[in-house]
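quick one, 294 residues, struct below
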Amino acid sequence: MDKSGIFYFLLSVFFLASFFAHAQNQEEDPAFEEDAQLDLITDAPLTIDLDDDQISQPEQENKKKEKRKKNVYFGFKTKKGFTRSGYGNNMKIELFNYLKEYREPDPYVRDIYWFDFKTGRIRVGGKIDPKYGAILHGPYKVIQNDQTLEEGVFYIGAKHGRWTAYAKMHDYYILTDKKKYYKGWPRDSKVSYYDKERTKLREVIPIEHEKKEGSYFYFHENGLVAVQGQYQNDVKVGLWVEFYEYRRQRKREVQYASSPYDTEFKPYIVKEWDQTGQLIYDREEQDKQLTTRF
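---
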């Protein structure tokens, strides 16, 4: 084993030992179960400014200062983290930072990245219990054979700034992907407003590689969510929900296919309510009545 291999081996032993020591003797927690439902938080304000130019790497944000505080990014203290997967030449090293103190991620952002102390792995989405998980925040890098495969920055669990990916081509590595984000929102997303001052959001269409991808929102003029759903590869997927202009008052739920490639699936209304909150249609109950009749 060369010096580089010995270094990564010792580094992996140190970090893995500390992580699994934390996770040892912890009981299974139901909070880690994946939640397939949309996070329907409609009274929290959405703040997004895709024209903000300050999305550079966190090291640059304090370049005018004489010395940046160690492990402090965007004003929040972090700790260093590390994972390893594979063996030999296929071994990949993930280097990352996570928040020292838990902060609630943006409920409007679909993909929130966090470190699972129980499994020693980085996870995306799902419920996060601060006792067993930590939000990624700050620089992130994937290394294989001293070469960078992926590199970027997290802001409270969301991808932020410039992200790049590399792959091996013959005997050298080439750039395969480059994206820009603003606190979890793809930089190319389309945002419209009700007013010229751009203070009242009207619609947010997530765009990646010229296709709709991610969380879609349409807002009432009072700032509350009117429509919320998900796009994958330019196609509506999963559960889409419509709301009245009143706080958390649902109007309609529409179910789309779970995969954008399922062309046989036909969308259908799951439930519908009137303005008083009275349930006026329930697909499941209707199916039960039809089954009983026949």
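The first strand starts at residue 72 and ends at 73.
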